[in-house]
Amino acid sequence: MILATRSASRALVAVVLPCLGLLTGCTSGLQAGWSAFDRGDYAAARSAWEPLAIQGDAKAQFLLGLMDENGQGSSADEAAAAHWYALSAAQGYAPAQTNLGAMYYTGHGVDKDHAQAVEWFQRAAAQGHSAAQSNLAMMHMFGQAVPPDVNRARELFEQAAAQGEPSAQYLLGAMHHDGLVGPKDAKAAADLYRAAAEQGVARAQFTLGWMLEQGIGDEKNDAEAAKWYRLAAEQDFALAQAALAALLHDGRGVPKDQVAAARWLQRAAEQGLAVAQLNLAQIRLSGDGVDRDAAAAARWYTLAAEQGLARAQARLGRMYELGRGVELDESTALMWFSLGADRGDESARAGRDRLSAKLPPEQVARVDGLVRTWNETHAAASTAVASVPDP
């Protein structure tokens, strides 16, 4: 679940703080704190805001909560953040109510309590606070401490999206994309994804890129897709890194650059994205943009295979069958072929049938036992296909 808050540590929402130097409604103490905060002098900012917070200034209390949550000027202290948020929220300050609700939702700084999260989100949403509206919509979507109500979720997302809340724009786009608010509407989804993407939401940037690459909701445009993939990739969004690598490898929408493709694949693979691990293994064998290294390829195939990726299991089986990058081991090859075959890979099925006919029945039986054990211990392993998955 994506929670929209007003903390820099929360995904999808940029920091929106209640007072900047030129805005009205700030006391001199708050402004002095801002000046210090802007130049990175967090100790001076705290010195300016803490007396105000102790005197009951709701904005100052909220700001101290943010600093404690984000570890600005000292180590992060979520319990202290929750304390300041609670004081501010009790005075009706909507940003604090939103962040306190998020802490109750996640159990950070307070005991997890979804009913309390709903309570605080409702209070902030009633004041028109867009992040609270988005969070409350998610809870209605999944029926968390409130009855599941897709229509209410849509209403809240629309209210938040109309205020420019990027999390709501993205999630409302997903509702249109999936047909959760009526017939599927790819054009409406793409427009909402674009609005969120333009605000820097990495998942929205990736999803918009994917739609442009596929020609869904707009005309197919690989160059535009590459632009959005790159923006998300630069935020370390692994799916975007893998998708950008594919375009660079093939020269679609961007100049062909296999070295850069390998670099982006490496970054995605190191984050644990199975399809990137698979593709990196393949270019390690082919030498596209990297030195050929069969042992490295086998290691990447293994990581992807352990996540249940059928194509990687098939390729790893073949590596063991040939002794390429690993010691030749037909039992291990048969195990990986069998696992890939169970997940629908045709080349794995052919490998399984080939080795099952070749090896002694007792050896095949032992491998069958290994396959059962692997499946039992990897029950949640992905059955993804060897391509970038749909968003």
Report on this model:
- This protein is mainly α and 391 residues long.
- Helices cover 66% and strands 0% of the residues.
- The chain has a domain at 275-284 and 293-391: Serine Threonine Protein Phosphatase 5, Tetratricopeptide repeat (Alpha Horseshoe).
- It has helices at 28-38, 42-54, 58-70, 78-90, 94-106, 114-126, 130-142, 150-162, 166-178, 186-197, 202-214, 222-233, 238-250, 258-270, 274-286, 294-306, 310-322, 330-342, 346-358, 361-377.
- Helix 7 runs antiparallel to helix 8 (150-162), helix 8 (150-162) crosses helix 9 (166-178) and helix 17 packs antiparallel against helix 18.
- The longest helix has 17 residues, at 361-377.
- It is elongated and about 80 Å long.
Strand content: under 5%
The total strand number stands at 0
The level-1 CATH class of the domain at 275-284 and 293-391: Mainly Alpha
Query: Order of helices and strands, N to C?
Result: HHHHHHHHHHHHHHHHHHHH
By DSSP (H or I, 4+ residues per run), the number of helices equals 20
Q: What is the CATH T-level topology of the domain at 275-284 and 293-391?
A: Serine Threonine Protein Phosphatase 5, Tetratricopeptide repeat
Overall form: elongated
Poorly predicted tracts of residues: 5-24, 382-391
Q: Radius of gyration, Cα only, in angstroms? A: 26 Å
Just name the CATH architecture of the domain at 275-284 and 293-391: Alpha Horseshoe
- Label the structural class: mainly alpha
* Straight-line N-to-C gap: 15 Å
Query: What level of helicity do the residues show?
Result: 55-70%
How does the major sheet shape up?
none
Can you give the mean pLDDT? 91
